[in-house]
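Hi L., both proteins are below.
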Amino acid sequence: MKAKTKLNKIQLREERAGYGFLLLSLIGTTIFIIVPILMSMFLGFTTWNPMKGLAGLDFVGLQNFRDMAGTSGSGPLSGITWCIPCPTFL
């Protein structure tokens, strides 16, 4: 195993630039991909009146998903709920 050598100024500057580009990519990924996914998951379990701001958030648990699927199989998305995922996973 080779001993770690001390970096000169140019190599150190290039290393920092590489980490800077990585940081920008990670920040963009976090802001535009991870945060919206987490917010969608959170809002799926709430009812929200946007006119009231954050005070309009009420936690309802799985009720939104029960309403969407319909308890008797006659909900607004009952056919779509099973027709799309089944072929996807098979």
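That was the first. Here is the second:
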Amino acid sequence: MPRRPSNPKPRKRTRSEKSIQSSILRWLVSTGLLHWRQSAGLLKVGRKKIRLGPSGIPDILVVVGENGHLLGLEVKSATGKQRPTQVEFQKKMEAAGATYRIVRSVADAKMAVTESYDR
């Protein structure tokens, strides 16, 4: 029988994007801010294909402040990276005057919302 190492390295458990996103959405509900989860891609229903949203759109959109500033939150895990379509969408949002942030935690989302109030 193989022997176990006497000092095994503890595995780091990173939170999934889905888990982080759920926590952020729960927090946003508690704030009363207008927000929604935006899906992208194609949905197949029988023979039909339905486009859910433009490719690269951030996971969560939030309307912030009295002037209705648009904030896009792209949720990523600790090691997650943007896809090229997400980088392109970020450029378009920022060119239009919106804010786009990559967030990896509820704390990151809170910071992004707070910063957006100043815009």
